Amino acid sequence: QVHLVESGGGSVQAGGSLRLSCAASGYTHNNNFMGWFRQAPGKEREGVAAIDSDGSTDYADSVKGRFTISKDNVENTLYLQMNSLKPEDTAIYYCAADVHPFKTTSDWETIKYWGQGTQVTVSS
């Protein structure tokens, strides 16, 4: 049974930084695909960053140069380092995983495993 648990969300002022973590159990990073999506109030869930089993990364245009996705295969943990945060980054951030590859532009409903989400609030 795959279980994903996010942590690290919180409130920060614009320009600040946060690091999200996603602890995975019942799942190995070695040959699977993971990523971060977010959903703001009244908006569709959207891809933020994704990472392939070989470490290749994909980012939404809105976060390129500010966010960095990484994973620790030993600790089975996915990370999202978020710098230069903006008010428009405010959303619930979800960790996602699947045995099939996906990108930030993928339909989120096709991705199999999800965490419960962690709130990120950026004030101006």
What would you note in describing this structure?
This protein has strands at residues 3-7, 10-13, 18-25, 33-39, 46-51, 57-59, 67-72, 77-82, 91-98, 113-114, 118-123. The protein has 124 residues and is mostly beta strands. It is globular and about 40 Å long. The model has no long low-confidence stretch (mean pLDDT 94).
Put the structure in a nutshell.
With 124 residues, this protein is mainly beta. Helix content is 0%, strand content 49%.
Mean pLDDT, as a whole number? 94
Overall body shape: globular
Strand content: over 45%
Number of strands: 11
Task: Tell me the number of helical segments per DSSP (H or I, 4 or more residues long).
Answer: 0
Describe the secondary-structure layout.
Elements: E1 3-7, E2 10-13, E3 18-25, E4 33-39, E5 46-51, E6 57-59, E7 67-72, E8 77-82, E9 91-98, E10 113-114, E11 118-123
Give the key terms:
11 strands, 124 residues
